[in-house]
Amino acid sequence: MKKFLSLALALCLAVSMAACGGSASSSAATSDTASAAVSGSAASAGAIKIGVSGPLTGSAAQYGEGVANGVQLAVEEINAMGGIQFEYRAEDDVADPESAVNAYNTLMDWGMQLFAGTVTSDACIAAAELANEDNVFMMTPSATAVEAIAYPNAFRMCFSDPNQGAASAQYIGDHQLATKVAVIYDSSSTYSSGIYENFAAAAADNGFEIVAAEAFTSDSNQDFSVQLQAAQSAGAELVFLPIYYSEASLILSQANTMGYAPQFFGCDGLDGILNAENFDTSLAEGVLLLTPYVPGVDEVTTEFTEKYTEKFGIAPNQFAANAYDVVYAMKAACEAAGVTADMSASDICDAILGVIGDVEISGVTGASISWDAESGEPNKEPRAVVIRDGAYTAPNDAADAQEAPAEDASSVAAESVSEAA
Amino acid sequence: MQFISYLINGISLGSVYAIIALGYTMVYGIAKMLNFAHGDVIMVGGYMVFIFMVNLGLPAIVSIVLAMAVCTVLGIVIETVAYRPLRGAPSLAVLITAIGVSYLLQNLALLIWGSTPKSFTSVVNMEPLRLAGGQLVITGESIVTIGVCIVVMVGLSLFINRTRMGRAMLAVSEDKGAAQLMGVNVNGTIMLTFAIGSALAAVAGALLCSSYPMLLPTTGSMPGIKAFVAAVFGGIGSVPGAMLGGILLGIIETLSKAYISTQLSDAIVFSVLIIVLLVKPTGILGKKISEKV
Prior knowledge:
By secondary structure, chain A is of the alpha/beta class. Chain A is built from 13 helices and 15 strands. Chain A has helices at 2-41, 61-81, 97-110, 121-134, 161-174, 190-203, 225-233, 245-258, 299-312, 318-337, 345-355, 395-398, 407-410; strands spanning 48-54, 86-92, 114-115, 137-140, 154-156, 180-186, 209-216, 238-241, 263-266, 288-291, 360-363, 366-371, 378-379, 383-388, 391-393. The longest helix of chain A has 40 residues, at 2-41. With 293 residues, chain B is mainly alpha-helical. A two-stranded antiparallel sheet of chain B has the order 1-4. A two-stranded antiparallel sheet of chain B has the order 2-3.
């Protein structure tokens, strides 16, 4: 009897602990953001409810936090303007598809009318399925996988994986950064392998050769010495990293120990690398990133950067910028479609889908952003940033910093590439 | 030259596995339980070193000693609270409790330190060794990890075979009941085992995070599982076996990444484990003990 009791207790403990993996952390995060939501919604009772789902905890938390902050800032600004009023709520999905479904359901119970999520691709694919069934208008700030917006009600603010892969290849080709390129990518992630495939397909057209394509999986993402050695012995001048920053920071530090200093080039997943606690930012000196948000590229972004930094005490990343633009896009779409707060989510979706093709906004991630009503893809110019002295800067400023070690980056003059066909 | 370089990387990775595996193998050998929370004690050790060294600015050695103290206390608390009440319970119950403790530690770490990765400052302040005109680079971390691994293994073997407490451990590992009848304090001995295992975990945490400087609440879990495999591979319960298993595992993993496929390395590592277990079920250096049923 006693044995049985202890076994049963142990089982309960194990099950509750396992459940903690998702729910404890998310409930903690929810209470955080719920209080934030109150401050963001104080404006009026007739507010349109925007739901946000993203990793507020877990290894991709910087992305989710950026998105939640960006949404908060935009909602507060829009509410202060009068006119359309918004209310928002952010749920934690730990970048995990199952948790994303739970987060989506929680948001629907809350009465979500517009869905600004989810932040990461795999989670977004799961949530998009439900959003399509419920016919809720969704615009993800940052889920780049093609499948994330497979349904007619789904749109995005960021570039898709094919777009990022092809645009990166074009950027490297246009600026003649290298002729021999190595790629280190995460074959267990849709995001990473999606970019890689399109990057590889576009390589030949842009006058460079992929001399090493080295994969890793999320279970073996600590030791990159083999991949780096393969890149080095293949003579790669540029290493393309279509991966997230936590692995990239390990790659940068291991390359530094090896004494291998190629040009590193990444996509939006690399954003956030400078904010990792205690990260030696000199390791990232000269790293190029293709990203829609370049601080200080024009007045709008400068103003956004200042307001955001003042409010949250940290510089915005491109996730925050995309999320900020998503809310303004939703505002523009609601105005164009004549949406009011008492309409159901499904009616709002139908109304917006009728006009989205004509909506055009000027935001912090592009001077002119419009959407293809069929595919849901945004039309805007990709931009690149380079890391100098521990900060993201526009590559044309980099020409002044001639002493920097990455010789190729400093010669980059133009700040944008035309969009890949 | 490249082969040697891969080999050294493999030995270095394997040494980290080996130190972690020593903790697994000791606890298994003496308490006959798989302490799946070991990987997470390593993570706690890593965070402790980070706090003492980076946040409080203490010297590396002092930080490691303090982290060892914290982990020792943690190990004793885990043993007393979670495992001791289950001493007579079926091994499945203990195993599940260990998994529970593992999740508990991970989620506590998530609440306390948050999810943003922390970039670890290496505890090793040593220039990499450059041989053959810079073609062969051996990092300071590799040298220190391999050195510490050997010292720990020799020290543990001496402790177990030469001291009274060590012999008490051997006695408990052979037969708990008989040891108790002979006047050995079984609970005290098992607690000591956990204390030593957890102190080693702190060292492993510091070395793991120095070689791979990224600290997350999940940092310990995958190396923990690989080290468990290493312990089984070398013969669980055997101290030299853990060391041999760890280093072989590291070499196999690195070489299969280099010459077969970077994606299949884990599959290859685990296939090797299965083959070894089919051919020699007790592991490479495992003692063949006829189990009393």
